[in-house]
Design a protein that fits this description.
single chain, alpha+beta, 6-stranded parallel beta sheet, globular
Length: 490
């Protein structure tokens, strides 16, 4: 396919990648060659276009250079490469200067600065979110034909029914003329229901093609897989997002759960579905994820005289840095900060960019993606939101006030939810319902758009109305008996 000129100008570069070396026991070479790169999605910023605070600058020879090579992937060619070099404007307004500041105060880059969205400037965050949306629009009208070789199977390993379904799909794939390599969870290697030994013994050609994945393999080599087949409900899809924290292969989800907002395909038709997907191609819906980073206060937590608001929106001296990062997560549904096991309500300071929005006194606060609007956000009284909307949904959980209404903010904003130093108790943060961590007084969570979107495979025949069908089917949205018409009498 010829390269397409999108006319988007300086937007984030989006690549696709796939490593065909699928041996789960070999972690030696983590980089993919040009011919191997194929289908996982990642937003890439040029290294010379990231601006850090003065105190975080290091010698250029100490920073690794971006050695990624260009690929021939047709998805990669949909966006122009951003070769722009930043030139500071001496006549910029205060607002313009604010756009060039980092969205968070982390001068030393304690974690891998190459994939931390909060280490970008406000303008880069906005450009990135815009670029993902534009790319998602283009993907919605493109059928991607993949050379599938490595298939990742995901299901609940403790559900006997789903284990049997996993075995059925794995056996069907292994019997195809195409020599697929099928990956199942390593806990199934000695599972009696899955019976890996019996499956391998049934056909000599299966030897070496049935492999077992681990969370370590997902984290280190996500591009080793061409496609993810999720068997279960929405929780299984969220687990796929959790396993692949950075690059995510396209996820084709079969509905075997309770509701199914994210599971688009009927499991009873999996054979025809997979045959069509592998031979005719797939359509991908690109879901923006959020990146959430826990920031720990470096000052004494018992000092209630300190002011979190002043620390986060005030000027920070070059030699006095108040917080440091302690773990980053990419989430598909929501970040929740709540009171946890404490008997009293939480006090949470909410910030947007360089402004202090409000002080929340409630059981907690839910910051949701559009995809997660039908999950915890809905249960807390938030709005339903189509996943294509470029927004962040903020909903209080049992607020102790009559006037806290749910608010919808642009996805280019950077939110921070923190526990003030004078709070009675600590709060707790969770990410897509996982990795629950305590936020002590002075700690906060930074939430911003992620550079690693989540590609969900859509049915070709109903992709345009899929979301409305989902809320109508699962929530009975606007469902009532139709009003009877009048019968005229003469």
């Amino acid at each position: 396919m010829d390269n397409a000129n999108t006319g988007l100008g300086k937007v984030p570069e989006i690549i696709t990648g796939n490593e065909n070396d699928g041996d789960s026991g070999d972690y030696g070479d983590m980089s993919a060659s040009d011919s191997d790169v194929q289908q996982a999605l990642e937003v890439v910023f040029q290294s010379d276009n990231i601006h850090r605070r003065k105190s975080s600058l290091v010698p250029s020879n100490a920073r690794p250079q971006n050695g990624r090579k260009h690929t021939n992937c047709f998805v990669h060619s949909l966006l122009d490469e951003n070769n722009g070099i930043y030139v500071p404007s001496h006549n910029a307004s205060y607002k313009g200067l604010a756009q060039e500041r980092k969205v968070d105060k982390d001068p030393d880059g304690f974690l891998d600065a190459g994939h931390q969205s909060r280490l970008l400037t406000k303008k880069q965050i906005a450009d990135m979110a815009f670029g993902i949306r534009e790319f998602a629009k283009r993907l919605a009208h493109i059928r991607l034909k993949m050379n599938v070789q490595h298939v990742f199977l995901l299901a609940k390993a403790h559900d006997a029914t789903l284990i049997a379904n996993t075995r059925e799909v794995a056996e069907w794939l292994l019997k195809r003329d195409q020599p697929y390599k099928v990956y199942v969870e390593d806990t199934l290697e000695h599972n009696k229901v899955f019976d890996a030994e019996g499956l391998l013994a049934s056909d000599n050609s299966f030897e070496g093609r049935l492999k077992f994945w681990t969370s370590e393999l997902c984290a280190k080599r996500p591009q080793a897989f061409d496609i993810v087949l999720a068997l279960g409900g929405d929780g299984t899809v969220l687990y796929a997002s959790w396993l692949f924290q950075r690059v995510v292969p396209p996820v084709l989800a079969f509905s075997l759960g309770s509701l199914g907002f994210l599971t688009k395909f009927d499991y009873d038709k999996f054979q025809s579905t997979l045959s069509g997907a592998f031979q005719e191609g797939i359509t991908v819906s690109l879901r923006l994820r959020f990146e959430a980073t826990v920031m720990r206060s470096q000052v004494h937590n018992g000092d209630s005289a300190r002011d979190l608001v002043e620390q986060l929106i005030g000027e920070e001296s070059e030699d006095n840095h108040t917080h440091k990062p302690d773990g980053t997560h990419n989430i598909l549904n929501e970040v929740v900060v709540d009171r946890g096991p404490n008997p009293t309500m939480s006090t949470i300071e909410l910030f947007g960019d360089d402004e202090h929005f409000t002080t929340v006194q409630a059981d907690g606060i839910c910051v949701s993606t559009p995809t997660g609007s039908t999950a915890y956000n809905l249960a807390a009284g938030g709005s339903l939101c189509h996943p294509d909307n470029p927004v962040i949904l903020v909903t209080a959980i049992c607020a102790h006030t009559l006037s806290f209404r749910p608010i919808i903010l642009p996805d280019t904003i950077v939110l921070r939810a923190g526990v003030p130093y004078d709070a009675r108790t600590s709060s707790w943060a969770s990410f897509d319902g996982r990795e629950r961590v305590e936020l002590r007084p002075g700690d906060y969570v930074t939430i911003s758009a992620s550079r690693f979107p989540f590609p969900s495979v859509l049915p070709l025949e109903r992709k345009s109305k899929d979301w409305v069908d989902s809320i109508s089917r699962t929530l009975n949205w606007n469902s009532r008996q139709r009003q009877k018409s009048f019968k005229e009498w003469s």
